[in-house]
Write a structure and sequence with these properties.
Elements: H1 7-38, H2 42-47, H3 61-67, H4 70-102, H5 109-118, H6 126-135, H7 153-164, H8 168-176, H9 181-192, H10 194-210, H11 213-218, H12 227-235, H13 249-272, H14 275-290
C-alpha cells in the first residue's frame, strides 16, 4: 500500500522539482544558446535583441560555410587519429603501469608509486618539455601529441586502486593454470575492471579531443593540426576569410558570428555522443577506483 504523503512533504517535493528544473535550465541554456544561434539567420540575429530561445530566422548558411572550409576536414581527420591512436596507447600503457604497482608482491611498489604521485604536483615546465620533445626528434610530428601524455598519473591511480582491490585468489588461480602477467592483465583483470577502464578511456578520449595547447607548441605544419586548433583560430583570431571569400565585408561581419557558434557545435557534438554509451560505467568506475584497498 502506498504511503500517503503529508502536505508539507508534497510542497517540499514540488519545491525540489522547481528548484532543480531552474538549475538545469541555467546550466543548459548556454549550450542551447549556441545551438540556436548556429541555426540562425545572420542578418536577423545581428538585428535581434533579447533572450534567444529559438533560432532567429532558421538558416544553415553558417554550417555550409563551416563545411566548405577544408581545414575543418583536415582537423577532423587529425583529431580522430589523435583520439583513436592516442587513447589506445593511453589505456594500454596506463593498464600496464597500474598492474605493476598494484601487485602486492612487487618489492619496489611503494617507492615507485610515491615517485609517480610526486609528478602530479611538480613538473619540469614548458621550456624543459619543449627541449625534451625537440631532442627526441618529435617536433612537428603526430607522436608529439601522443607520447608525452601517454600516461596520466590521476588515471593511473584510479586504475591501480581498481586492480589492487581485486581478490588475490584470482591471480593465484591464473598462475597455477600457467598464465603469464600479460594474460592475467588483458584476459582476466581487464574484464573484471571494465567500469574503471571505461572511465579512463573517456577521460583520455575527451582530453585528446579538446587538446590544442600541445599542438600549438609542438606543431608548425597545418596538415597536422587537430580540429581544436582550427577552432581556436576561428574563435580568437577570427580567421574566417577562407569560408567567406565570395562575401562582402558587411556580410562577412554579420555571418561570422553564426559561423563561430556553428564551428563550436561541429567540434563539440561528436565527443558528446560518447557519453550515453559510457555513462552506465562512469559512476561505478570512479567509485571502484576511489576506494582504497
Amino acid at each position: 500500500m502506498a504511503i500517503k504523503k503529508s502536505v508539507p512533504s508534497r510542497l517540499f517535493d514540488v519545491f525540489n522539482v522547481l528548484l532543480l528544473s531552474l538549475i538545469t535550465l541555467i546550466a543548459l541554456y548556454p549550450f542551447l544558446y549556441v545551438v540556436f544561434v548556429s541555426f540562425s539567420n545572420a542578418n536577423e540575429y545581428a538585428a535581434y535583441t533579447g533572450i534567444v530561445y529559438k533560432p532567429v530566422g532558421f538558416s544553415l548558411a553558417a554550417y555550409k560555410a563551416v563545411f566548405s572550409n577544408k581545414d575543418i576536414y583536415t582537423g577532423y581527420m587529425n583529431t580522430l587519429f589523435y583520439v583513436v591512436v592516442g587513447t589506445a596507447c593511453n589505456v594500454i600503457m596506463t593498464s600496464i603501469g597500474a598492474y605493476v604497482i598494484s601487485r602486492k608482491n612487487f618489492m619496489w611498489r611503494k617507492p615507485i608509486t610515491t615517485m609517480i604521485v610526486v609528478t602530479m604536483f611538480f613538473s619540469g615546465g614548458l621550456i624543459p618539455n619543449y627541449l625534451l620533445i625537440k631532442s627526441l626528434g618529435l617536433l612537428n610530428s603526430r607522436m608529439a601529441l601522443i607520447i608525452p601524455t601517454v600516461i596520466s598519473t590521476y588515471n593511473l591511480m584510479i586504475l591501480k586502486t581498481a586492480f589492487f582491490n581485486l581478490p588475490d585468489s584470482i591471480e593465484e588461480a591464473a598462475k597455477i593454470d600457467g598464465a603469464n602477467d600479460f594474460v592475467i592483465l588483458f584476459q582476466i583483470i581487464f574484464p573484471l575492471t571494465l567500469p574503471s577502464i571505461a572511465v579512463i578511456t573517456l577521460y583520455y578520449a575527451v582530453g585528446h579531443w579538446n587538446s590544442w595547447f600541445n599542438a600549438m607548441i609542438y606543431l608548425s605544419d597545418r596538415d597536422l593540426y587537430p580540429l581544436q586548433l582550427f577552432l581556436r583560430e576561428i574563435l580568437i583570431s577570427n580567421s574566417m576569410d577562407n569560408m567567406l571569400m565570395d562575401s562582402s565585408a558587411a556580410e562577412k561581419e554579420q555571418i561570422s558570428q553564426t559561423i563561430q557558434y556553428a564551428t563550436i557545435m561541429v567540434a563539440t557534438v561528436p565527443i558528446l555522443l560518447l557519453y550515453p554509451f559510457l555513462q552506465k560505467y562512469f559512476v561505478k568506475g570512479v567509485m571502484i577506483g576511489a576506494v582504497k584497498g
